[in-house]
Prior knowledge:
The chain is of the alpha/beta class and 314 residues long. Helices cover 42% and strands 14% of the residues. It is built from twelve helices and nine strands. Helix 2 (62-73) crosses helix 12. The longest helix has 19 residues, at 21-39. It is globular and about 55 Å long.
Amino acid sequence: MAGIPEDLKGRNYTRVSDWSRQELELALDLADELKQERARRKELRVLPGRTLGMIFHKPSTRTRVAFEVGIAELGGMALYLPAADLQLARGESYRDTALVLSRFVSALLIRTFEQAEVDEFAEYASIPVINGLTDLAHPLQALADAMTIRERHGGLEGVKLTYLGDGNNVCHSLMRLAARFGMHFTAACPAGYEPLPSVVEAARADAAESGGSVRVTNDPLEGADGADVLYTDVWTSMGQDAEREQRLLDLERFSLDGELVSMASREAVAMHCLPAHVGEEIAEDVLYGPRSLVWEQAENRLHTQKAVLALVVR
């Protein structure tokens, strides 16, 4: 593997818009290379002795495991830090925690509720801060999604990507990344579940420069029509359990099933960032069928997260 450039060393990755299209493309290219080298069982220990601190306010499977495995394969180690076990739980400020942990670890990953918490850590930490998911954004997932789509299509520009369901954090980050790369992105969401207007506006500005497009519709059939990629996510995210029954009713028409797949292009694929609830946001025959890229998508979390670490950790 060629020497890793210094351009992104010390930088944060708290939202897709932190990085330019060229920087995101660099991460995707590096992820491709890391995936190939791993398949050859070649060790690329580019972060010897480095430590990643991982603060979790929410449960995690793919983010946590991919980072623990990933930094180990790069020669470093991860520290799992449940927020309830830190002094954060007893009122220590984010600022003080960031200042202290910056003296101990090489980078910080944070999975929490409010984007403002990640932003505060990034403001005061002297090491890179990575967003492992907030209620606003999931930039790590978007990077893995882009890698997966690029593997299938050979590129991203011009690909028609439709997101179905709740216009949530995953939708926000996917939209921002798609717009940066000249994709044609559609968010098909019920009324009241659309992505934030501020995110849509920013994505449309990017799309105007890249040659892509961004649209929002309340009709799932219209959204699926001609799509190259159909994408969905859980209907009830962490912290929304009290709303579950109402959400199931409101989102029922947006389930990724055979009818919606039939509306898409002949070679359309299905994606889901997991965990999946079969029979709700996705049908069993779609999740496990020949059109599914879900498991490649999950694997690519490892390669893209390794790429982010290799690029930002000094």
